[in-house]
Amino acid sequence: MPKLHKNPYNYRFIAASHKCTTKPLSRFLNSALRLILKHFREYCLGIYRNTGVNAFWIVENSLEVLDSLRSIPTRKAQLASFDFSTLYTAISHNLLKDKITNLI
After folding, report:
1. What are phi and psi of 3, to 5 degrees?
2. pTM for the full predicted model
3. Among 9, 17, 30, 55, who pairs with 44 as Cys (CB 3.0-4.6 Å)?
């Protein structure tokens, strides 16, 4: 799928996962990561209750970002967004397998 807003144009790989051979592993990994996320969210909530500092920076979607921005008192601020187009392609598969194995 072309990313027409980029100059020069980039392409994003999209794969159907309906009959993908890695789907069971993907579901398991998704469940494991969601448990870690839940634990981290609860941990950060405890930090927030004790210190007033929000250490949880993970958002599910853009609506959470908008809600957070609306709750900040109006003041001069600088906002930035970043496109990590090569984030996952640059991860060593062996390193990734080792890290996931250690988590599990």
Report:
1. -105, 85
2. 0.49
3. 55
Q: Which amino acid is at 7?
A: N
Give me the helix-helix angle, 93-103 and 23-51, nearest 10°: 60
pLDDT means per 10 residues in the chain (104 residues)? 64 70 86 93 95 88 82 71 66 82 80
Task: Supply the DSSP symbol for 18.
Answer: T
Dist. CA 67–CA 25, nearest whole Å: 34
Amino acid, res. 80? A
| Three-state secondary-structure class, residue 2 | strand
Question: What is the spatial distance between Cα 39 and Cα 58, in angstroms, rounded to a whole number?
Answer: 13
Q: Which of 23, 20, 2, 21 has its CA nearest to residue 11?
A: 2
DSSP 3: E
What was the pLDDT predicted at 89?
A: 67
